[in-house]
C-alpha cells in the first residue's frame, strides 16, 4: 500500500514539474528563441574570429618583450607613474632605470643624472638586463619616460622578424651614421642577438662611449657590430614609431618645404593622414595627462560598428620583397 | 494504471496553474520593464549588448539601415577654420551634412540664411532641414567647434522610434528650465522637429526675435519652444549611465579625472561610446579622426552587431 502511495506521489510530482515547465516555456518562447539566436550567433562569431585580426596564428611562438624606460628620481611621480598606470603592464617585463634604486621600483644604475650621461645610462641599463634578464625575453625595448607605447602593435610589427637574427628597429634617422640610427625618444628595440652583440662590443672594446647622444651612439655600435637596421613601416609604407606627438604629423600641411623635425628622415617622409600607421607603435613628448588621452583614444574611444578602411588581411603573408616595393625603397634587398 | 495517469494529469494541471499565477504576480511588480517606454524619463540610455542580442539578425539589419542622420551644422565666416575642419572631418560621417551660414563665404559652400540673429538663424535652419529631410528621421544640430562621432549617435538612438518626440544631448538645468546644451550637440527625432516647426508659427509661445527685455541663448530658447509642444530635454547616456555628450575637450575631461580618480583615471572619465566633445582646436580635431577611426591595438576585435562603412573619397578615417 505504502509503495503504491509513494509511486503515485512521485508521478504526481513529475506531472507538476512537466506542467510547470511547459507553461514556462510557452510564456518564455520569445526569450527561448532569443537564447537560441544568441547561441547561434556566438557559434558564428567563433568561426568568424579566425578570419579577424587575431594575432595567434601570425606569431607561432609568442615572443616576449622586455621594456625599460630611462627615468630619474625627479620624474617618478610626474612621469613614470603614469606609464606604470597605462602601457607598462602590457610588456612581459617592465624595468624603470634610474640613477638610484627605489621602491617604485627602480633599478639603480650607478650613473648620475643629466643629459651628458644618457649614453652611459643606456650602456649600464643594457648590461644590467643582459646579466639578469636575458632569458626572460626575445625583444628588448628602450623608451623614454615621455614615450607612449602600443605594445600590441609593437608585437605585430616585430612578428615578421626572428629574434635570433640581429635586428635593430625603430624610427630610422639618416645623418651621422651611414646605415642610419633609431630615434631614442620614439623608442627602439633590439633582438636578443642584437643585444648579445651590443654587450660583446663593449666587452671587446669595439664599441665605446663615443658620445652622450644616446641614440646616435647606439646606432654607431650597431653598425660596428653588423646589426642591420630594420624597416618598421607598415604594409602601406606608413610609419609606426614617432619621435613627436600625433599633431606634428597628422595635421594637413600646405605644399612647401618640410618642417625641421622631418629633416632627419631616412625613408620618404609624409605629413597628413599618410604619416602614421593605424597600428602605430609609439609617440613621444607625451607627458602626464597626454598618456591617458592616448590610452583613451587607442584602447577605449571608438566608433561603434565602424568597418576600418585599412584591415591587414591575415592570409597575405608579409612578403618583404613586395612590401619594400610598395614602400618605394630605391633598391630591393638581396634576399 | 488509470489512477497513475490521473495522478500525473492532476500534477500537470497544478504545475501549469502554479506557473501562470506566478508570472501574473511578477508582471504586477514595479520592477518589470514595460514594452512601451514611459516617455517622461530624463535620460535616454544606449542599448546594452543584451538589448541587441534579443533582436533577430534581420531586425538589427533593418535598424542599421534605417537609422540615418541629417546634420544641421551652424557656421559663420568668422569661424572659417572650424568650418573647414568640420567639413574635412566628422561631418563626412553624417548621411546628409548640411552647413547653414549667417552669410555667404567665397571659400566654402553652405546654405546662406542671410541672418545675423542667432536664434532666428537656427529657426530658419531647422525649418529648412525639416523641409529637406527626405527619408532621414534623425537630426543632429551642432556648431563646427563640436567634434561628433556619428556612429555612436546612431547606436544611441538605434532602438528609439523617431515617430516619438526625442530631444537629447547634454541635459542641463537653468532654474526651472531643462535644456540641451548647444555646444555638445542637440539630437532631435523627426517627430520632435515636426512639432517644433509647428510651434514656430506661434509668435506668443515661440517668438522669432525674442522679447526685448532679455535674450535667452538659442539652446534655452529651443527648450522653451519644445516644452510647449510637450517635448522635454533628456540626457544621452551609455548603458552604464555615463554621459555621451561632452561640453569639454578630451584633455580637460582626462585632467578632471586625474584629479578626481587618480587610481583609475580612464574608468572615472569618459564613455567608450562618447558622441561629442566640445572646444577642441582644429588640429586636435584632425588628430581625433585618427584616434577614433584608425588608431587601435592589433588583435582586438569587437564583433559589433552593427556595420557602418567608411565614407567615399575620404582619406583621414
TrEMBL record, chain A:
It catalyses: an N-acetyl-alpha-D-galactosaminyl derivative + UDP-alpha-D-galactose = a beta-D-galactosyl-(1->3)-N-acetyl-alpha-D-galactosaminyl derivative + UDP + H(+). It is found in: Membrane. GO terms for molecular function: glycoprotein-N-acetylgalactosamine 3-beta-galactosyltransferase activity; manganese ion binding; nucleotide binding. Residues 65-234 form the Fringe-like glycosyltransferase domain. Its EC number is 2.4.1.122. Keywords: Disulfide bond, Glycoprotein, Glycosyltransferase, Manganese, Membrane, Metal-binding, Nucleotide-binding, Signal-anchor, Transferase, Transmembrane, Transmembrane helix. Its cofactor is Mn(2+). It comes from the Eukaryota. The keyword Nucleotide-binding applies. It is a single-pass type II membrane protein. Its main location: membrane. One of its GO terms (cellular component) is membrane. Pfam families: Fringe (PF02434). Pathway: Protein modification; protein glycosylation. The keyword Amino-acid biosynthesis does not apply. Glycosyltransferase that generates the core 1 O-glycan Gal-beta1-3GalNAc-alpha1-Ser/Thr (T antigen), which is a precursor for many extended O-glycans in glycoproteins. Homodimer; disulfide-linked. Belongs to the glycosyltransferase 31 family. Beta3-Gal-T subfamily. This is Glycoprotein-N-acetylgalactosamine 3-beta-galactosyltransferase 1. The gene is c1galt1a.
UniProtKB/TrEMBL annotation, chain B:
This is C1GALT1-specific chaperone 1. GO terms for cellular component: membrane. Belongs to the glycosyltransferase 31 family. Beta3-Gal-T subfamily. It is found in: Membrane. GO terms for molecular function: glycoprotein-N-acetylgalactosamine 3-beta-galactosyltransferase activity. It is a single-pass type II membrane protein. It comes from the Eukaryota. Residues 33-57 are annotated as: Disordered. Keywords: Membrane, Signal, Signal-anchor, Transmembrane, Transmembrane helix. It comes from Parambassis ranga (Indian glassy fish). The keyword Cell wall biogenesis/degradation does not apply. GO terms for biological process: protein O-linked glycosylation. The gene is c1galt1c1.
Amino acid at each position: 500500500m505504502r509503495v503504491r502511495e509513494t509511486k503515485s506521489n512521485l508521478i504526481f510530482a513529475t506531472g507538476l514539474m512537466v506542467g510547470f515547465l511547459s507553461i514556462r516555456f510557452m510564456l518564455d518562447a520569445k526569450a527561448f528563441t532569443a537564447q537560441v539566436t544568441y547561441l547561434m550567433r556566438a557559434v558564428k562569431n567563433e568561426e568568424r574570429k579566425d578570419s579577424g585580426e587575431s594575432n595567434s596564428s601570425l606569431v607561432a611562438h609568442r615572443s616576449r618583450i622586455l621594456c625599460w624606460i630611462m627615468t630619474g628620481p625627479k620624474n617618478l611621480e610626474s612621469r613614470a607613474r603614469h606609464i606604470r598606470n597605462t602601457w607598462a603592464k602590457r610588456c612581459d617585463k617592465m624595468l624603470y632605470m634610474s640613477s638610484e634604486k627605489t621602491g617604485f621600483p627602480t633599478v639603480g644604475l650607478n650613473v648620475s643624472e643629466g643629459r651628458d650621461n644618457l649614453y652611459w645610462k643606456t650602456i649600464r641599463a643594457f648590461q644590467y638586463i643582459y646579466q639578469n634578464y636575458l632569458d626572460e625575453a626575445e625583444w628588448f625595448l628602450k623608451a623614454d619616460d615621455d614615450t607612449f607605447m602600443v605594445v600590441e602593435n609593437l608585437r605585430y610589427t616585430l612578428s615578421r622578424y626572428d629574434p635570433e637574427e640581429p635586428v635593430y628597429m625603430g624610427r630610422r634617422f639618416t645623418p651621422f651614421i651611414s646605415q642610419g640610427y633609431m630615434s631614442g625618444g620614439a623608442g627602439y628595440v633590439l633582438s636578443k642577438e642584437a643585444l648579445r652583440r651590443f654587450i660583446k662590443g663593449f666587452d671587446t672594446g669595439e664599441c665605446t662611449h663615443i658620445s652622450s647622444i644616446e641614440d646616435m651612439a647606439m646606432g654607431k655600435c650597431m653598425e660596428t657590430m653588423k646589426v642591420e637596421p630594420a624597416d618598421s613601416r607598415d604594409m602601406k609604407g606608413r610609419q609606426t614609431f614617432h619621435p613627436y606627438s600625433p599633431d606634428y604629423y597628422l595635421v594637413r600641411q600646405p605644399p612647401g618645404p618640410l618642417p625641421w623635425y622631418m629633416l632627419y628622415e631616412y625613408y620618404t617622409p609624409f605629413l597628413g593622414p599618410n604619416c602614421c600607421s593605424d597600428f602605430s607603435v609609439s609617440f613621444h613628448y607625451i607627458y602626464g595627462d597626454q598618456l591617458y588621452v592616448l590610452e583613451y583614444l587607442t584602447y577605449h574611444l571608438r566608433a561603434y560598428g565602424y568597418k576600418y578602411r585599412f584591415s591587414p588581411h591575415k592570409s597575405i603573408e608579409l612578403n618583404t620583397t613586395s612590401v619594400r616595393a610598395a614602400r618605394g625603397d630605391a633598391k630591393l634587398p638581396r634576399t | 494504471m488509470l489512477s497513475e495517469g490521473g495522478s500525473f494529469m492532476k500534477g500537470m494541471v497544478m504545475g501549469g496553474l502554479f506557473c501562470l499565477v506566478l508570472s501574473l504576480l511578477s508582471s504586477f511588480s514595479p520592477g518589470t520593464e514595460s514594452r512601451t517606454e514611459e516617455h517622461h524619463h530624463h535620460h535616454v540610455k544606449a542599448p546594452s549588448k543584451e538589448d541587441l542580442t534579443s533582436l533577430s539578425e534581420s531586425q538589427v539589419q533593418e535598424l542599421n539601415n534605417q537609422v540615418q542622420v541629417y546634420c544641421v551644422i551652424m557656421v559663420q565666416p568668422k569661424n572659417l577654420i572650424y568650418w573647414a575642419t568640420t567639413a574635412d572631418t566628422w561631418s563626412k560621417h553624417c548621411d546628409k551634412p548640411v552647413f547653414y551660414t549667417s552669410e555667404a563665404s567665397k571659400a566654402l559652400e553652405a546654405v546662406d540664411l542671410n541672418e545675423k540673429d542667432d536664434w532666428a538663424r537656427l529657426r530658419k535652419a531647422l525649418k529648412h532641414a525639416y523641409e529637406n529631410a527626405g527619408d532621414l528621421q534623425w537630426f543632429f544640430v551642432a556648431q563646427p567647434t563640436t567634434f561628433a562621432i556619428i556612429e555612436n549617435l546612431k547606436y544611441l538612438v538605434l532602438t528609439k522610434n523617431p515617430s516619438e518626440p526625442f530631444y537629447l544631448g547634454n541635459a542641463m538645468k537653468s532654474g526651472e528650465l531643462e535644456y540641451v546644451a548647444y555646444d555638445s550637440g542637440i539630437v532631435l527625432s523627426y517627430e520632435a522637429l515636426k512639432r517644433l516647426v509647428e510651434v514656430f508659427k506661434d509668435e506668443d509661445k515661440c517668438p522669432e526675435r525674442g522679447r526685448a527685455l532679455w535674450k535667452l541663448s538659442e539652446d534655452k530658447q529651443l527648450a522653451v519652444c519644445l516644452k510647449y509642444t510637450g517635448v522635454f530635454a533628456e540626457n544621452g547616456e551609455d548603458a552604464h549611465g555615463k554621459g555621451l555628450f561632452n561640453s569639454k575637450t578630451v584633455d580637460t575631461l582626462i585632467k578632471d579625472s586625474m584629479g578626481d580618480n587618480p587610481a583609475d583615471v580612464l574608468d572615472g572619465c569618459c564613455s567608450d561610446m562618447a558622441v561629442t566633445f566640445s572646444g577642441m582646436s582644429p588640429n586636435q580635431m584632425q588628430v581625433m579622426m585618427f584616434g577614433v577611426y584608425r588608431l587601435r591595438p592589433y588583435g582586438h576585435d569587437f564583433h559589433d552587431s552593427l556595420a557602418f562603412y567608411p565614407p567615399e573619397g575620404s582619406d583621414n578615417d
